[in-house]
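From: lab user (bench 3)
To: helpdesk
Subject: output format question, protein + zinc ion

Hello, I'm new to running complex predictions and I'm not sure whether the block I got back is the full result or only part of it. Here's what I submitted:
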Amino acid sequence: MNGRRSIRAAHVLAYADGGHVLLTDAEVVVEGARIVAVGPAGAAAADEVIELGAVLLTPGLVDLDALTDIDHTILDSWQSRELGLGLQWSRDYAEQRRRAVFDAGERAFIREYGFVQLLLHGVTTAMPIASEVHSDWAETFEDAVAMAEAARRLGLRVYLGPSYRSGVNVVDSDGTRSIYWNEPLGRSGFEDAERFLEWAAAQESDLVHGALLPCRIETLSEELMRRTAALAERTGVLVRLHALQGLLERELVLAEYGAPPLAVLERTGLLGPKLLVPHGIYVDSNPLVDADTDTDIATLAAAGVTVIHCPLTMARHGAALDSFARYRAAGVRMALGTDSFPPDLVRGIDIGVTVAKVLAHRTDAATYADYFAAATLGGAEALGRRDLGRIAVGAIADLVAFRLDDPLDGVLDDPVRTLCMNSTARAADFSMIAGRIVLRDGVIAGIDLPAMTRRAQQLFDRMRAAYSERDYLRRPVGELFPPSFPSG
Ligand SMILES: [Zn+2]
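Helpdesk reply: Thanks, we reran it on our side. This is the complete output you should expect:
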């Protein structure tokens, strides 16, 4: 490393007394992987000065349900119920015809493409999501190793492991939803996940951390949940499990286990501070949930569970957290995720705040500050990392700068509100992860983005075409994905 580098910016979101504070004309001095000084520009000695100018320099964004897909929301967030059934696996596809749409090399490329997108949107720490829809079941040890290697090459910090499941959501021939179970596949996926934890631990790298990432609660057998909890307990790693994300999930879990999702998490030993739950929306107090209790939010808080809120993707699926402020006030740790394209936490924050206002019919229902803190401090705390998510002396130097001088953003007011309301995460211009500059002038060195985009488009086209063979009615792609307007 090249000595002490002073990174100067018109606005710096620093950290003091347990929260973020805004500094003007300030610097962050970095030595090796750590921050060694924060204060007025020029106050500390430095060997090199990086002048970023009219930007908001913030802690790198922490995305705990991170896009590592080409996209799926553009395909699956707008259909009628009937068309939506066509996007699931049919039971006969799951039982007899399932196949991987992509080979291992293509899967590795897709993950790397996702990582590049995350970096370009200011994410510095990511917990990837899998895209099992296109796989022949879930992910493999080799998939996770390829992802870890891509992350390390790019300089992105990841918490990951291969996803696994013992069942898959399917549509039966009469159009009803159920789960197709295949416990041996669940067990072998779990073994891959266990093997990956050992591999990740042996890397001794702060860019690669193992985690247990089983798919969704309704697709895990109780045995697999118990084994996951025991392995997490033994190794100390985090578990991320999609739960409380839909009404159908609740129905399926009630039918299979005779108890609602939260009770199942509790009795399998998963409920605790190591558990991260995307999306946590359909708790018993949610008016859409048929329950006569109102204890789930308090249970999540008492257990120390993190809820990973993905406001943009959920809003596009017609769902909203009810409400961010309520969960927070109850003491639930809140983190953010992107989940799908665009992996833009700034837009996510704006949509989250806006949806909260709409739900509460009040303009003070949520603040940009609280959401921004979830995208930084909340995510870091969920990972058990008090050295991430903050710009403070001794913290790891994970930084991102968002331009504030784009004339299209209009005038500048409070820099956080201006960024969130008038701009997007595409304003990310500079980022540093553990002291290494990853993004400079909006560019990642060595990445040919146009070439990646062309390959991603080809793979996306193939992925889109493959929906038809899985549809329980085998409808053509033109029927599953009708254009916005008929072609003239
Ligand atoms: Zn998700």
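A quick orientation on your result: The CA atoms of residues 229 and 270 lie 5 Å apart. Let us know if anything else is unclear.
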